[in-house]
Amino acid sequence: NRENQYNPIQGTGHADLVQAPDGSWWLVCLAFRQQNGAHHLLGRETYLAPVRWDKDAWPVVNGNGSISLDMDVPTLPLSPVTTTPTRDNFSGDRPGVEWVWMRNPVMENYSTGKDGLHIKATDITLDNSKESPSLLLRRQEHIDFTAATEVSLTNAPDGMEAGMTVFASEPSHYDLYVTRAADGSDSIKLRYRLNELTHVESSIPVPAGCRSVGLQVKGTPTTYSFAYSTDGGQNFISIASMNTRYLSTETAGGFTGTFIGLFATSPSGSGDARFKYFDYIPENK
């Protein structure tokens, strides 16, 4: 119906009907949340809705056949859910289960420990659609969020890049990173890759003596806003914002949603990047 055309939850499907021990019926399905008009970036999520069985009729979902963000219905017994900390110091033996790789990773290129995450740079870029770049990814789970990290380069050759990417696919990503020049100086750059178009929006020199750089991205329904810090993450300076729609499924294709990634690459395939931490702070549900 017309009302459901404007529902913030769309694309419902792949449903299963289940009956709880108390006799109530429920539907578990996949769907996606829209933002910035008719665009979605979070991929398909799992939804639970109540089901009513009327006599000699089809089952009725949530009273009106739709899925809602908030449903005021009797609930099943509640169980505590373990939440992921907002800061990951990478202090364990390996990255947590919330982290994923592209294709089959070369695990020797990643290490974790008391001083954070180390990623060895390779010559495989984020644009490569066949091999596995040195890239560790975490799904964007919220429309409004803040993500941040602090990166430093070691034994970096000319042209090495290391930093953070908002990644939809190889042809569609926004990259905020530190790069090393032939004279040994570093710069902070913000780059947009949109299919055939690649644009470096900004290049900011890293002050002499600054050994690590903070990188930050803030997500809203309509924008990703990028910022940097050269004082250990105490103060972030805004660089620019980019429209979210260009990384959406409707524009970029795909259906698995957008990721926030940490990466390292260099033309010579050498160099090492250390990420001191990774913050992921949701601003809403």
Report on the structure:
The protein is mainly beta and 285 residues long. The protein has 2 domains: 2-61; 87-282, Jelly Rolls. It is built from 2 helices and 19 strands. Strands 5, 7, 8, 10, 15, 16, 17 and 19 form an 8-stranded antiparallel β-sheet that branches. Strand 13 and strand 14 form a beta hairpin. The two termini are 27 Å apart.
Name of the top-level CATH class of the largest domain? Mainly Beta
Helical segment count: 2
Q: In CATH terms, what is the architecture of the largest domain?
A: Sandwich
> Could you name the CATH topology of the largest domain?
Jelly Rolls
Number of strands: 19
Rg, rounded, reads 22 Å
Helix content: under 10%
Query: For the report, how would you describe the main beta sheet?
Result: 8 strands, antiparallel
Mean pLDDT: 94
Distance between the termini: 27 Å
| Global shape | elongated
Listing every helix as H and every strand as E from the N terminus to the C terminus, the arrangement reads: HEEEEEEEEEEEEEEEEEHEE
Low-confidence stretches: none
Number of structural units classed as domains: 2
Oligomer: single chain
Strand content: over 45%
Structural class: mainly beta
